[in-house]
Amino acid sequence: GDKPAHFKPGSIKKEERKIVDAAYLARNDGQYILTLLKPDKPLPALLSGDASGRITAAYTLTPEIAKSQRFYFYSGPTDNAIITKEGVGIEQILPSGPMVILGRFILKILTFFHRIIPNWGVAIILLTILLKIIFFPLTRLSLRTMKTMQKLQPYLKDLSKKYKDNPKAMQQEMFGIYRQYHINPMAGCLPMHFPVVLAAWAA
């Protein structure tokens, strides 16, 4: 279907905007609560913004349309599994993207642990242990790289003095050292599991 139109608070002030065919009207109350009204067929709607930027939305109905139309109303968690199970085709209004998909996968694992042991604290601990096991090879590689870099620091300092007037030669020498000792300089920087932590928080 068409991409949903989003209106942020303050985007409409002291004016009204007409929508010819609105498939649904929805509002996010924060990150976790969704309120939605969806008719059987798209209907005309009116968006109104007051001086403070607060937006209200409503369908414009004639008596004939009001009698013939049925409405689906939802107010609850912004949960992909729950909304998909409703089966009314409103999944597209939920956030999407790689991080969201990863977050939903992590949430499934968390709820799986919760089904086994019905305690959220224990489920979170089990998820943390699982993530540590999965990322242990990367963590070990990062620690080894940091340790090797620390040992090479005196030599790298000598290189910077030796080639202070020739940055290109210094760079070539350093890359040669990295190849010789099988070092990936990026492995000791930002943790490789950082996106997973962000995805888990977003879930």
List keywords for this structure.
three-stranded antiparallel sheet, 203 residues
Structural notes for this entry:
The chain is an alpha+beta fold and 203 residues long. Helix content is 48%, strand content 19%. The chain has 7 helices and 6 strands, in the order βββββαβαααααα. The strands form 2 sheets. A 3-stranded antiparallel beta sheet has the order 1-4-5, with no helix packed on it. A hairpin with a 5-residue loop joins strand 4 (43-49) and strand 5. It is elongated, with a radius of gyration of 27 Å. The two termini are 25 Å apart. 6% of the residues are buried.
Short description:
With 203 residues, the protein is an alpha+beta fold.
Distance between the termini: 25 Å
Rg, Cα atoms, Å: 27 Å
The helix/strand series, from N terminus to C terminus, equals EEEEEHEHHHHHH
What proportion of the residues is helical, as a percent range?
40-55%
Number of helical stretches of at least 4 residues: 7
Main sheet makeup = 3 strands, antiparallel
> Which percent range describes the beta-strand content?
15-25%
Q: What's the β-strand tally? A: 6
Please identify the structural class as seen in this structure.
alpha+beta
- What low-confidence regions span 5 or more consecutive residues with pLDDT below 50? none
Overall shape: it is: elongated
Going across the biggest sheet, name each strand in turn: 1-4-5
Mean pLDDT: 78
